[in-house]
Design a protein that fits this description.
The structure is a single chain. The protein has 266 residues and is mainly alpha-helical. It contains 15 helices and no strands. The two termini are 40 Å apart.
């Protein structure tokens, strides 16, 4: 057991190191992310905490956002992806770090309770947002690159179901959303049943998956903003684990019934 736990701990510890090495290999600095500040600032814009912070800091010639603080986009996605004047003014993805870090640090210092309340709300919203299809709308941006470098593939790309809106996302979600929701709700109960039956490994696995889903919701919801695609990437684990646990539980009941019938006949 100690060896098994050590292997898990080593894998978890190695994951951030691999990300840092990948950034170095691609010519970037040795960091986990070069743009995490932009996502967090965008979340503060959506929450209104960026505006509240700027109200306290402005006027300040070193803060470009002071000039547009009353016209910030309404959502984080609009700030980052909607050709936002505010985001462009502060330098975009890489050039915005200095100003973003200052606003983020000031907001944490000035509004700690508001940050906690927002974090709880965003985590809960992310935990229950996991439908399939977020981000699978038609993507026109790569057309020029595909045409320039892979012209023979362009007709197939243009005719793909994602580009023509023919992906059956409504039908998929009619099955996926209730199934995933039921599986997530069942995880704690299934873990408790496994624990009572002294199935320690099964109980630990169910708890680990539940913790991973919750942790993913907290990380993505708080450090970025809730988007269904973030949780949908992991929610299948709940369905898979719950299915295995229910099958194991049913098999145990059947085994117990057979043993009882055999004892009665004896």
């Amino acid at each position: 057991m100690t060896l098994r736990l050590g292997g898990i701990a080593a894998a978890v510890a190695a994951a951030p190191a691999l990300v840092v090495c990948a950034n170095l290999a691609l010519g970037g600095p040795p960091v986990l992310s070069q743009t995490s500040h932009a996502f967090l600032l965008a979340r503060l814009v959506q929450d209104g905490l960026a505006h509240q912070t700027l109200d306290r800091l402005c006027p300040d010639p070193d803060l470009t956002l002071c000039g547009v603080k009353d016209n910030l986009p309404p959502t984080a996605n609009d700030f980052l992806w909607g050709d936002s004047e505010a985001f462009a003014r502060i330098g975009g993805w890489l050039g915005s770090k200095r100003e973003a870090d200052r606003i983020i640090d000031a907001s944490l210092r000035l509004f700690p309770l508001e940050h906690l309340a927002s974090a709880a709300t965003l985590s809960a919203r992310q935990l229950v947002s996991f439908s399939t299809g977020d981000g699978l709308e038609s993507q026109a941006e790569p057309w020029g690159l595909i045409e320039a470098h892979f012209p023979a593939d362009l007709p197939s790309y243009v005719a793909a179901r994602q580009q023509t809106g023919l992906l059956p996302l409504v039908e998929i979600n009619l099955l996926e959303v209730p199934l995933a929701a039921a599986s997530m709700v069942l995880l704690p109960w299934l873990a408790l049943m496994a624990w009572r039956r002294e199935r320690w490994r099964e109980a630990a696995g169910l708890i680990l998956i539940g913790a991973a889903l919750l942790g993913n919701a907290v990380i993505c919801g708080v450090l970025s903003n809730p988007n269904a695609r973030y949780e949908s990437r992991m929610v299948w684990l709940a369905v898979f684990a719950a299915g295995l646990a229910v099958a194991d539980w049913a098999r145990g009941l059947e085994t117990a019934r057979r043993a009882a019938r055999a004892a009665g006949k004896a």
